[in-house]
Every structure is written in structure tokens, then in C-alpha cells.
Design goal:
3 helices, 112 residues, mainly alpha, single chain
Length: 112
């Protein structure tokens, strides 16, 4: 939970990254709003441009982002595995093709 405090209140880019995650996943902090050392940021409220203290209870994101992030990363793992598998297959085919060409052109190299 200390990680969220390290990222929020840092650079503007870090704050924007945290805000984007929280707004899109509708969550607050890693484990919940208590992760923040003071009042959570506006991105923890479902009402745009509303400070946490002014945010209606029904609009406050009380769940942490941990589960949502795990789902997003888990979904991306399948895509990453597929891309890496395709790249590996492409490399194997390229190596096999190079060996085939080298083997079948060796006789012509001797004639020259």
C-alpha cells in the first residue's frame, strides 16, 4: 500500500497514470482509499472533477485496484504469449529456409 503513495504526489506523469487506472477500473488505491496518506485524489470519485471530501458516498470508489489490474494483466498475458509464439515460429521457419537455401546452393558455389 505504500507504493501508491510513492507514485501519487510524484511527477505529473505518475499521477496521470494512477488517475487513468483508477478512473477506468473504477477503483481507488491498490487495496482501497486507505492507501492514501490523506484524502484520495479526485480520480477516486465517480463524479468528474469532484474532490473526495465532496464526493457523494454512492460515487466513491471503495474497492482497491489490485483485482482489476490482475484481470487486465491476465488478459494481456494470452496476447503476449500468442505474439511471442508467432515470433518464435517465424524465426524457426526463417532458419529452416536459410539452411535449405544454403544446402541447395552449395553445389553452385563450387562451380564458380
Amino acid at each position: 500500500s505504500s507504493g501508491i503513495n510513492a507514485e501519487y504526489g510524484g511527477t505529473e506523469a505518475e499521477e496521470m497514470a494512477v488517475d487513468v487506472v483508477q478512473e477506468n477500473l473504477e477503483c481507488c488505491g491498490f487495496e482501497g482509499p486507505g492507501d492514501y496518506k490523506g484524502s484520495p485524489p479526485e480520480s477516486c470519485c465517480g463524479v468528474e472533477d469532484t474532490a473526495w471530501i465532496d464526493c457523494p458516498e454512492f460515487a466513491k470508489y471503495m474497492e482497491g485496484c489490485e483485482d482489476g489490474l490482475r484481470k487486465v494483466i491476465g488478459g494481456a498475458q494470452d496476447l503476449i504469449a500468442a505474439v511471442l509464439g508467432f515470433a518464435l515460429l517465424l524465426n524457426v521457419v526463417s532458419i529452416a529456409s536459410a539452411c535449405y537455401i544454403k544446402r541447395n546452393t552449395a553445389q553452385y558455389d563450387k562451380m564458380a
